[in-house]
């Protein structure tokens, strides 16, 4: 069935909006949980035993449970975890934060090593056990990231292609002649970038690249294509070099300001990237970025231009 360009664009916009909204909801949730932990007072009085809210924290006057406690109880009920009923609000907040941290670290590892999984822990029957499990998974993921960081960039790219670029029969499904993989490190943490045709290119990647493209079109209308925003040179925001930088920036507060970064790529740079990458650098805080391609060509960009 033929899909019109208008329908395709509408679908793409909806995917980007969903990804952006989910990111904002998650950020807000983590901020709320962090405030809950900081506000927790273990000496706060509880409702006496024998009351319907017995054992729960009060507002400090010995009366009934506070609104915050009732909200926490309702949230525990919605989760459906039986152990939540015995947990304190602070424990639940710590668990949710630790689990979010573990998920984010695991996601970053699997962007590079998709077959990696943390060990499963059987100690999950209680909220303290769930906290220990999340902390253990976080440590495992961070350890794996450090191991990946110690690999040579070309070895990391080769391993990534072997895992992502072959079908069940070992045949290539993601041609190296048509697609790129890049890698870089920021503060000792490795990142891998792929172009938008790769299986691991996510809705989040797509939404971030779309935002960047809109910003560049607005800031540089004489350089960017305003008639067909999906064509040269705008398409560079969806290429492996840009994806690598965008993922690194996303993990570092949205900016790479003050950084010196080396990006290794397994294909020669295309004309779109040659034209747009220095502008992307400005949008991401103006780091000094060196690109190394498979034939040994080295290019360095800073202040919106190529300096070598």
Q: What brief labels describe this structure?
A:
308 residues, alpha+beta, Cytidine Deaminase, domain 2, 2 domains, six-stranded mixed sheet, 6 strands, globular, disordered N terminus
Report helical residue fraction.
40-55%
- Count of the separate structural domains: 2
The best one-word shape is globular
> What is the straight-line distance between the termini?
48 Å
So how many helices?
Answer: 8
How many E strands? Answer: 6
Order of helices and strands: HHHHHEEHHEHEEE
Oligomer: single chain
- Supply the CATH class of the largest domain: Alpha Beta
- Poorly predicted ranges: 1-5, 52-80
Q: What Rg is obtained from the alpha carbons, in whole angstroms?
A: 24 Å
Under the CATH scheme, which architecture of the largest domain would be assigned? 3-Layer(aba) Sandwich
* Residue-averaged pLDDT: 78
Largest sheet: 6 strands, mixed
How large is the share of residues in beta strands? 5-15%
Side by side, the strands of the main sheet go 2-1-3-4-5-6
By CATH, the topology of the largest domain is: Cytidine Deaminase, domain 2
Class by SSE composition: alpha+beta
